[in-house]
Amino acid sequence: MLDDLNIRAATLEDIPEITTIFRDTIRAVNSRDYNEKQIAVWSSGADDIDKWEERIKKLYFIVAEIGDTIVGFSYLTKGYYLDGLFVHKDFQRQTIASKLLRIMESRVSINGFDTIKSDVSITALEFFDSHFYEVEKKQKKSHKGMVFENYIVYKNL
Ligand SMILES: CC(C)(COP(=O)(O)OP(=O)(O)OC[C@H]1O[C@@H](n2cnc3c(N)ncnc32)[C@H](O)[C@@H]1OP(=O)(O)O)[C@@H](O)C(=O)NCCC(=O)NCCS
User: Fold this and answer.
1) I want to staple 111 with a disulfide (CB 3.0 to 4.6 A). Which of 31, 51, 67, 79 is the partner?
2) Is the Cα torsion angle 87, 91, 95, 96 positive or negative in sign?
3) Considering the entire predicted model, what is its pTM?
4) Which residue's CA is the closest to the ligand 1 atom numbered 20?
5) Which one-letter DSSP state was computed for residue 35?
6) Which residue minimizes the CA distance to atom 25 of ligand 1?
């Protein structure tokens, strides 16, 4: 099935699917590591449509799809900072994130940087570890009045 995986630039028409994945994956997957209030605050970021529009217009933002269904997405800020990487809750552990990450790493190199960085959730740490990312530090980050524990990771390309 993953032979049919297509990766392309995101468009504004993808916003409903992208925001649904963002909301549902946080609720279904990240809820393993964060409490109910944190999940509610974090997933509510799906409703900020202006912000998603701005990200798609201004950033390097890609989606992975199988047929007509978007199954994952990722975007870069500052040319080297992986700011988002999400896989559809029903398509976890099928190498979709690995494929998106490979493209993001190539893009960072093309942009002239030799290190890729990210803030990653507790949930995603093992994924990044399996891709040879190092932890720079564990941090507590404030978001909409809530404190989230996560990790800054990096990899020299
Ligand atoms: C983290 C995430 C993006 C990984 O996506 P994925 O498509 O399932 O990842 P892959 O299938 O490419 O995983 C590749 C390898 O990473 C490791 N890995 C991935 N998820 C893992 C998990 N939950 N626990 C342990 N190892 C994991 C494994 O080694 C895996 O290989 P394997 O399945 O053969 O064991 C996905 O779980 C997700 O959307 N999480 C919620 C959102 C999130 O936290 N995003 C991170 C930025 S905040």
Assistant:
1) 79
2) negative
3) 0.96
4) 127
5) -
6) 126
Q: Are the CB atoms for 100 and 88 separated by under 8 Å?
A: no
Residue 151 C-alpha to ligand 1 middle, in angstroms? 15
Residues with CB under 6 A from ligand 1: 25, 29-30, 85-87, 92-98, 120-121, 123-124, 126-127, 130
Structural tokens at position 117:
């960085």
| Residue at token pair 């990790």 | 151
Q: 80 C-alpha to center of ligand 1: Å?
A: 20
Q: Cα 88 to chain center, whole Å? A: 11
Residue closest by Cα to atom 36 of ligand 1: 87
CA of 93 to the centre of ligand 1 (A): 6
Query: What SS3 state is found at 142?
Result: strand
Q: Please, what are the domains in the chain?
A: 2-156 (3.40.630.30)
Q: What is the pLDDT of residues 35-88, one digit of tens each?
A: 999 999 999 999 999 999 999 999 999 999 999 999 999 999 999 999 999 999
